Amino acid sequence: MKTVTEFPRKVVEFPDMGIVMPDGCRLSARVWMPADAADDPVPAILEHLPYRKRDGTIFRDQLTHPYFAGHGYASIRVDMRGNGDSEGLMDDEYSEQELQDACDVIAWAAAQPWCNGNVGMMGISWGGFNCLQVAAKQPPALKAVISLCSTVDRYADDIHYKGGCLLIENFGWASTMLSYSSRPPDPLLAGDNRWRDLWLTRLENQPFLAPLWLQHQHRDAYWKRGSICEDYSAIQAAVLSIGGWHDGYRNTISHLAANIEAPVKGIVGPWIHKYPHYAAPEPRIGFLQEALRWWDRWLKGTDTGVVADPAYRAYVMDSVRPARWHPERPGRWVAEPVWPSPEIKTQDIELIPEGRKPIIVASPQSCGLAGGEYFPFTFGPELPGDQCPDDALSVCFDQPVLTEAIDIVGAPEVLVRVSSDRPQANIAIRLCDVHPDGASELISYGVLNLTHRNSHEFPEALVPGETVGARVVLDQCAYRVPSGHRLRIAFSNAYWPMIWPSPEPVRLDLSAATLKLPLRPLAKGDEVTFPTPEAAAPWATETLRAANSERHVNCDEKTGMITLSIVDDFGEVRDLEHGLANGSIARETWAIHPDNPLSASGKTHWTQTLSRNGWSVRTETFAEMRSDAQNFMVNARIEAYEGEKLVFERNFEDKIPRALL
């Protein structure tokens, strides 16, 4: 990545610009803009997040926002209310208050003498979600959006539920946010006599969101609010949607490119949950240059050629040896002028010959340990590994060895006819690339709670022994399977720890299955190119503790319990400008017995530290989730320390009834 230090316009920074909301709440913003913006007003770009601009997202902010400012933009990074250096309280993700605050910040920015009245909004993950939701509210000044690693459907394609199955990330992310939002504002910004009061008030009102999310197990009004798929036409700003094949949010780009009526383009690379100018696996792209093309067209009215760009640009990954981490993925960029593409044809593959007896699917509860993280994040061992261990616990349909390579581009689907011996059952289907020596690489997967076969809003219990039809949609992918390899389609009724298990062991009788495979004519090489990455000067820090990530799977030979232990030590660094040191460690354990779905448990423990010149604070958060046949049980705890003194503690405990889950 090329570091740029000289820009067309000189940049000035305001580290704590206060923006007062209509209710009097002060939001803290870090703002970069051209030094002469007051004389030559510029468009504004907003990123609105709970992740702490002072010490949370500062690594990526430092690369990105000064770059935009140097090219003629006011780049605004706001801490949401109740987080970082902002006042107020947060009660949920994507609340009406959060979205209204963003609209108010947009109106504030547009009215400033240094702004020309045009505003864009961008973000990744949370910021990618809320910029789409804010766009649907149509604030007058918002003209363009760049949304990365986001969703159009808060129920069906987020960290809560997938295919009507409960993702363990529902609990895991609630634990993460409990930790993230437990930290105080920086005393240098909030004031020596004020930061502590703000912190304690924040802690006293801090929500643990897992119980709330578990109270909405079906696609009800709670999830519909903020799901822009409810009305794509509400989006009138121009949208650039970007994602990565190694991220959990890989479907949104296709959904937006296919459904948005406003100007829209999509880009999908081989990346994890990161901005693509520093993401991995490589190749990276010049994301900031692409962003400037988008901003210049829609915020400055400059013809940059983006209107003529292909509707959908995707990186078709080559087959590689399975591994928990890939620093790079060989492949090529393909381009589709329109999306969906008429060039992509569906091949139907019947997996079960007509007249064959039903095939029994009854997986051990531990099937799924090779699946990797829902959204890999740490540049560490989080990707799906060799699928052979999970294949051995699944029913597999191996296809003939390919005599010619194929490019799979799109969302594979599997139509099934199946019966269950229990009123609730899950099915997981994986599409794999099997190497000549038997190694199995995951291409895509999909899961479905079979009670949701007709509706996520109105699920229907299965009648034991009754055969039903269902459609399982796998995630979007772009993957080349070479000649000499074969496809494997693997069926299981457990996928731990990606989804929470059914309340009882289940037997499925699979009587019919058809794979619908989206095939694109074989790409000859790159059909589109991107510039090499550029960025502003990186964040200047001193490393106090190096980052490290570990994953361990252990089987207790006496009890039979299988435990996945995860430690993500994000390290500790000191900011060389303002001196604040911050550190973070996450620990997770996921345990289950292969024969007992009610043995499933998840535990998390997060440590956050902040310090400067003898001042220090620390928060410890703990959470646990279990279930019986009727209920989910979750509990959590916050401990906050000033120095070594415990200054706050709080416990959460909830029991939530299961509803066909």
From TrEMBL:
Organism superkingdom: Bacteria
Entry protein name: Peptidase S15
InterPro entries with a match to the protein in the record: AB_hydrolase_fold, CocE/Ser_esterase, Galactose-bd-like_sf, Xaa-Pro-like_dom, Xaa-Pro_dipept_C, Xaa-Pro_dipeptidyl-ppase/CocE
GO MF assignments: dipeptidyl-peptidase activity
Domain Xaa-Pro dipeptidyl-peptidase C-terminal, first and last residues per copy: 292-540
SUPFAM superfamilies xrefs: alpha/beta-Hydrolases (SSF53474), Galactose-binding domain-like (SSF49785)
Keywords: Hydrolase
Pfam families from the UniProt entry: Peptidase_S15 (PF02129), PepX_C (PF08530)
Organism listed in the record: Mesorhizobium temperatum
